[in-house]
Design brief:
Blueprint (H helix, E strand, L loop, with lengths): L2 E2 L5 H15 L11 H21 L3 E3 L5 E7 L5 H14 L2 H14 L4 H4 L4 E8 L8 H16 L3 E5 L2 H9 L3 E7 L5 E7 L2
Parallel strand pairs: 4-5
Antiparallel strand pairs: 1-2, 2-3, 3-4, 5-7, 6-7
Helix pairs in contact: 1-2, 2-3
Length: 196
């Protein structure tokens, strides 16, 4: 069963930060930050701040044993203050040159989901399954929960990923791959949508 993550201890939040950070270290989003080993520390910091944002915005959901997480944001209820706090903290803790390269990449691919993003939608901010629990249907459970929320709200559910295998997984779960954009650094953004 998936439910909103609320009122957890700092220790529990730190475990989530670590799990999500480790899952994203190899993500192509951070391609320009060096090899996996070179970028590991900064990606861990970045993803910790991102997890804090998703949690503080009340948009973090997990399975019962906290081995799978999904961030879900209704674009009609976006939380600006947690975003501002996250950006400020990133500027204070991650090298400006690395953030600049990430922003450059983001600008190149920002139009990838404009077909649906112009209207109210549900954004999958992240999907993460503990590497020791993959292959057990947790990702399917998380995506099904998101699809049900999308159905209840009557708005499309959007996924953006920089990993081809994940794009294929979302298609397997009933999402439409409707756009791909490749940035100058060779990283491709796959945009997918689920709608009833």
């Amino acid at each position: 069963m998936i439910s909103k993550v609320e009122n957890i201890s700092d220790e529990q939040l730190e475990k989530i930060r670590k799990l999500v950070g480790e899952a994203f270290v190899t993500n192509e989003l951070f391609h320009d930050w060096g090899s996996v080993e070179e970028r590991s520390e900064d990606v861990m910091k970045y993803m910790a701040l991102y997890v804090d944002y998703v949690y503080q915005a009340d948009e973090l959901y997990a399975n019962e044993d906290f081995t799978g997480f999904i961030g879900l944001e209704d674009s009609g209820n976006a939380h600006k203050m947690p975003q501002v706090r996250m950006l400020f903290r990133m500027l204070m803790s991650i090298k400006f040159s690395k953030l600049k390269s990430l922003v450059g990449f983001a600008k190149q691919i920002e139009s990838s989901n404009e077909k649906y993003a112009k209207h109210r939608h549900l954004d999958a901010l992240m999907v993460c399954v503990d590497k020791n629990h993959q292959g057990r249907g947790i990702a399917s459970e998380l995506v099904t929960y998101a699809k049900n929320m999308s159905d209840e709200l009557g708005i499309p559910l959007l996924f953006d990923t920089d990993v081809k295998n994940y794009a294929e997984m979302y298609q397997h779960f009933g999402c439409e791959l409707y756009n791909t954009v490749t940035a100058d650094n060779g990283v491709t953004r796959y945009s997918l949508c689920y709608k009833k």
